Structures are given as structure tokens and as C-alpha cells.
Amino acid sequence: MTTTHSASTRKISWDILRVFAVFAVVVEHITHQAPVNHPELGGYPFSLPLQFGASTMLVISAFFVCVTIGRRRWLWNRVARLLPAYFAAVIVTYVATRIAVTVFDRHSYGPGGWLFGASVSSAPGEFPWLQPSVHDLFGNLMMMQVWIPGFHWIDASYWTMPVQLAAFVVAALLFPRKWLTARNAPLLLWSLVIVPVVLRFTARTDDSPQWVKSIFDGLALNRVQLFGVGVAIWLWSTGRMRVWHLGVYIVAALVAQDTHAYFTDTPSTVALGVVLLIVCFAAGGRDWDVPFVRRLAPAITWLAGISFGVYLIHQQLGFILARSLLDLGATPIERFAASFALAVVLGWLLTKLVERPVHRLLTQKTQSHAGRSGKSPANPDPSPLPISQANTVGAGPPTSGESFAAANSQSR
């Protein structure tokens, strides 16, 4: 039985999960990934090596695909929310990296100068930084870096973007064909777990041709089980899957995730399993609207609203800031605090200046048309929450408690 909530209902539990997932990524990148990529940035007061935040975001994103997919122009609304912010983040990160690496490694350039020119000389220190090229800028804007090895990542956090866009397109194609029925749902979900693992050890090996690796990695087949988990949790929360089936499926998906990593990061997989239990509590239980949380609700909601922007712009620019502060003699705790604060500030600016206004501009024609035809759009104003994450990141619809059944009835 599906519980239907009013359109104004908003569950603080989902905002908490979005904030937790995104800032788990931020803290892991500051304290663990930064010293891995740039050893000179080591020495933080603590390290969070568990990589579960981005995976959690993909699970929540898939859950809310099921919740919202019946809305008017569903796919276009997501594209209009995701891509402008992504393009802006790529350009800003490219320019900042070109400036920073020019200073760090003392580059000089030929035609095109510091912004577009090729380096003709440099004097890197013990730990040189990669200087992105115009070639890399184009590849990242087109999201080709995951398909073609010749393109370098301007920011490695961008890997979730093509994954989510591909998932959204597939969902939009399959939804009108009633792809998730009681009969075929188990087969579809289990294929997302089993088939990629089989391909990993038969087709996509270290010795496979590059085109095979590009297809497997480009479609992120090592991650599709996470979307299956999100769908399974939604099915369970609406009474369409038994609790034992959900439990077995989540365990199988976690084993598959660890298998794709050749069991080299089992602690992160275990941590993800614990977080998925919490996600299940949010999906199937009461809202976490207790007095303590209620007092923090404005801050939690605000952070959830900028979480997509935070995710897009925190990593590479945080590394640059940490290196700059290191050269100035800042302590590890000062570098951590500054990098964390930078992620929040830049995420807020990206959300306020790009994500929301451009989304409003790109969707206002649809809303105006709905008004002229005598119908009210389901959501006349863009949500303050990002559509994509968990995004990547903090994904979620404007009303995270709204049932899929209600949305589906609107689309008929």
C-alpha cells in the first residue's frame, strides 16, 4: 500500500541524508583524497578514507526517479537543472586551475597565453600538478573524458554526471512502456547486479580492447547496482517488495560493488551498507522531525538546497586552496576549515547564480504554456533542492514524500 502525502509535505529526513552524503564526500576528499593526489597536502588532523558518499547519492537519486518520473517534462527539468551548473563548474575550475598551476609550477606559454596556450617551459617542484589543456576543457564539457582516455579530468568528482544523465535517459525511455511491473521488476533489478559482474570478469578485463573498456566504464556498469538499490528501496517502501527480498538484494549489490573493486576497499562497502540501512529507515519510517532536528531544520534545508553545487565545485578548487594555504604556512586544521568553508560558499554561489536562475529560465516557457492552457504546473517555481543528487549528489524532488502513484496518475 502506497502512502500518499500532500504536495506541501517535506521530509527533513531526506534533507539530512543529502547533507550527510554530500559532506561525507567533501570531508573524504579534503582529508584523504587530497594527500593521495597531492602528497604535499598530507598531515590533516584526521582522515576519512571511507568512500560511500557518492554511492549514497546515486541510491537516493534512483529512489526519487521513481517518486517523480510521472511529472510533466520530467527529463527536461532534470537536464535543465544539471547541465548549466555543470558547465559553469567546469569552466570556473578550468580557469582557476590554469592560474594556480601556472603559479605552482612556474609555467610559461606559447600562443594562446596562460588561458589556452600550451606550456613551453616549467619548473615544477617535487610534486608537479597537471595543467589542463583546451583539449581537456572540451572533453569535460562534452563529458567525453570517461569514454576517451586522451582527455584528463579537470575535476574527478564529475564522474557522477554522465552516470546520472544516462540513468535518467534510460528511465525516461522505459517509463512510458511500464517497465517496472510486478512481473519484470525482480528480473530487471537482479540483472543490474549480476550482468555487470559477469561482464567484469569475461569482457571487461585489464587486457580488453579499449573500446570495450570505454563502453563498460562510460556506462558505469560497475555502479548500476546502486540504481537498482534505490529502485528496490522505493518498491519496498510502497509495499511492492518484501523486506527479506530487499535485504538479500542490498547484500548482493554490496558484494557486487566490492567485487568490481576486486575487494580492495571492503571497509567503504561496509560503511555504505550501514548508510543504506539508514536510507531504508527514511524511506519506510516516520520523518525525523523531532524537536532537536526541528531547531536545525532551516540550516539543514539550506545546505541540502546547495548540495549539488557543493558537490560540483568542491574538490579541485579545495585542493588548490589547500596548496596555496600550505605555501603560506597555514596549519592543517586551518587548511581543513578553509577548504570546507570554500565548498559551502562556492556551492551556494553556483546554486544562486547559475543552477536556480538558469533552470527557471529554461523551464518558464513550459510553465507559461501550462498556465495559458488552463492548467497549473505541478511545481510553478523551481525547487530550492537540486534535482540530481543525492548527485550526484543531493538528489531529490521538491516534495520528497510525494508518492510515485500520485505522480503517475498526473501523467495519464
From TrEMBL:
<dbReference type="InterPro" id="IPR050879">
    <property type="entry name" value="Acyltransferase_3"/>
</dbReference>
<feature type="transmembrane region" description="Helical">
    <location>
        <begin position="50"/>
        <end position="70"/>
    </location>
</feature>
<feature type="transmembrane region" description="Helical">
    <location>
        <begin position="215"/>
        <end position="236"/>
    </location>
</feature>
<feature type="transmembrane region" description="Helical">
    <location>
        <begin position="82"/>
        <end position="104"/>
    </location>
</feature>
<keyword id="KW-0812">Transmembrane</keyword>
<feature type="transmembrane region" description="Helical">
    <location>
        <begin position="333"/>
        <end position="351"/>
    </location>
</feature>
<feature type="region of interest" description="Disordered">
    <location>
        <begin position="364"/>
        <end position="412"/>
    </location>
</feature>
<feature type="transmembrane region" description="Helical">
    <location>
        <begin position="156"/>
        <end position="175"/>
    </location>
</feature>
<feature type="transmembrane region" description="Helical">
    <location>
        <begin position="296"/>
        <end position="313"/>
    </location>
</feature>
<keyword id="KW-0012">Acyltransferase</keyword>
<feature type="transmembrane region" description="Helical">
    <location>
        <begin position="268"/>
        <end position="284"/>
    </location>
</feature>
<dbReference type="InterPro" id="IPR002656">
    <property type="entry name" value="Acyl_transf_3_dom"/>
</dbReference>
<feature type="transmembrane region" description="Helical">
    <location>
        <begin position="12"/>
        <end position="30"/>
    </location>
</feature>
<protein>
    <submittedName>
        <fullName>Acyltransferase</fullName>
    </submittedName>
</protein>
<keyword id="KW-1133">Transmembrane helix</keyword>
<feature type="transmembrane region" description="Helical">
    <location>
        <begin position="187"/>
        <end position="203"/>
    </location>
</feature>
<feature type="transmembrane region" description="Helical">
    <location>
        <begin position="243"/>
        <end position="262"/>
    </location>
</feature>
<feature type="domain" description="Acyltransferase 3">
    <location>
        <begin position="13"/>
        <end position="351"/>
    </location>
</feature>
<keyword id="KW-0808">Transferase</keyword>
<keyword id="KW-0472">Membrane</keyword>
<dbReference type="GO" id="GO:0016746">
    <property type="term" value="F:acyltransferase activity"/>
</dbReference>
<feature type="compositionally biased region" description="Polar residues">
    <location>
        <begin position="400"/>
        <end position="412"/>
    </location>
</feature>
<dbReference type="Pfam" id="PF01757">
    <property type="entry name" value="Acyl_transf_3"/>
</dbReference>
